Queue: 4 jobs
Job 1
Amino acid sequence: MAVAMRMRWPGIGAVEYDAVREEVTWEDRAPVGGWLHVALAADDGMEVWDVWESADAFRAFTEERLMPGVARLGIAGEPIVKIEPCHYFQRELIVGGRLLAEVGSVPSAEAYDVFAAKVDWDTQPPAGGICHIAVQAESGTIDTLSVWRSEQACVRFAVDRMKPVADALGVPHEIDGSPPRFSAVHAVFAPPGSPTRLR
């Protein structure tokens, strides 16, 4: 079963993350079963959202390559890791440049599925959307991460496609209140040949 791995590593910044990425060479030697990797530079350390073919594939990568690389670099501490079912993900062509991430939450899988079916980002991906991950959290919510080429692309999708669906379903949408909160994306990676969707 596909899983989402969410990791926070307090105190580890972009410099340490880049050193680990270079040491472990996951872009040159893609980890078996790794489908999508998104890293955000948060205020208190790095935040990573991954999609993996299975929890075992992630554990094998961690034990065989990631943590030995961290140890070789002398990086102290331990990350906070959650492995949860991946409810949905999709990715489009991954491009360079400045990318932004929006993190959100939906009350339940049922609510997410109804909304997603009506918005139909499967067959009509949003212009400017890079990837979207939906995680079945332990709390029962669906936590989401969406990566965008620009704030304008996200807001345009929200106004043109999401708000009309929210209005039709009679549910509030964040566009009605405060604007989305964006974080800078530090890195996005998907191995060649890896799946582009999971439903």
Note: The first strand starts at residue 3 and ends at 10.
Job 2
Amino acid sequence: MKKSLKIILTLVLVLASVFGLSKIRSAQADGATGKIQITSKTITPAKSPVDQYTDIKVDLTFNVPNGVKSGDQAVIALPQNLRFISDQEFDVMSPDGEVVAKAVINAASKSITLTYKDYVTKKSNISGSMSFAVRVEPATKSPSKVPITLNVDNNPVPVGEVDFVVNPGKLEKTLDKVSWGTETLADGSITRQYEVRVNAADAPLTEAVVTDQLQTEGMSYIEDSFEIPICKIKLDRKSHLC
């Protein structure tokens, strides 16, 4: 099986934001026609306070209003202080095994788009549920209370809030490497993302060169996946921005 590797080089001090896998659970009830109405919502952080590596599970139940055709869409968007880990696609299923909607997570736009299928023209009064995991962007003010407010078809839906304290990592290290997000693609290949954080210790560096050697057979770099953001974030020993 072909394996690929994504590398992200982060210069100076950029803290990685890693997000857990998202999943859409089966729709419940009889059918669907329309946009989406959130009927209940909860958040469950893996720990408190959260940091930029902590999964925050979001659970939603919803109704699909009657009167809409196949192809109609509902969009749920994250606020700027949250993020998904990667692009993903899911089927939202009915209890009888039919596809109610295709759910597409777009990490760049921070959105989930539900596109309803032919099932919605045959049934009515659908209810459903979905869950997904997000994490707080590392550039968020620390410490702070972070509101979890979703934008559902252009309507704000408050879900809750979490206490956030950024994890500065190992501040004494000049070079640090972390990885996350193993994903199997449609063609059977596997990708995994890596981040190399350079100079968290704020040491004087001149003409520094960073090298990385793959030691897994069959693994190669995805050349157009390299990103080199250049910025500087200073943190004190209590993880406060300064």
Note: The mean pLDDT is 77.
Job 3
Amino acid sequence: MEYKIVEKEKFILLVKVETFDNEIVGEEENTLIPDFWKRCNADDTFDVLKAHRVNGDVYGACAPLSKEETHFEYGIGSLYAGGEVPSGFDVWEVKANQWAVFQCIGTDGQCIGETWDRIYKEFCLDQDIICLMILTLNSIRQRM
């Protein structure tokens, strides 16, 4: 799997968050996270993000998975310009760190599930690291 390691400074995301069962990770037929993207595309999530963003990028951010926990949080968001936090949204501060950067290109939520599956199976299981995924979808970018 192609990826690059980059140094990233601390950044702040405004995110809409849902909690998912750890057991969905690696399930080939699971569509819960792509379905979350579809719901956000259908409601006002992207309009709210657009009003509070630093740039036009939209990210899918997965909080670190832990063997001690049964669930993980997944957020859809953008770099946060600051101000009052809109109802139904959270602010995530991401510390400066080294990142493994993967590309996810597609026009619908299906590429997210496929990319997550590959990252988990081909990268995370072979590394002694915490995986945090940031994805940008072409269709979302065009809408924003």
Note: The first strand starts at residue 4 and ends at 8.
Job 4
Amino acid sequence: MTCDTSRSAPASTKRLWARLSAARAVGAALLLAGCAAPASDLLVGEAWPEADALFHSEPRWLGSDATYGVELGGGRVLWLFGDSFITTSSAHVRSQSVLVRNSVTLQTGADPAHTAMAFAWGQDAAGKPSAFFTAPVADTWL
């Protein structure tokens, strides 16, 4: 299949594209005009040391990405984590850890001062940390 560049688009097509381009420009201008929020509308984060401490209650679990919380009822929350660093030494540093594809924790209690966290991940045949959920086919993603 070849493209014939010697022919020009019909005038009606050119007008349609011109209208669409103008509409996009107006839409973008309206969208951008709403981007500047007044300072009073900006959200400000606050430290919550009690809640932060919960995720440091398991010294072997060093952190993860892609965090999702699922309320299970009864004051329980299942936390699902993506790529997770699990330490393999008593140094508890990432340079001496394994990156596993996922890990989980079960939070029991809503008040961080009285909450328990039970972290879990898998273990391979050699005893090293591995993903909690494994793919049915090796080297694939869930």
Note: Residues 49-130 form one domain.
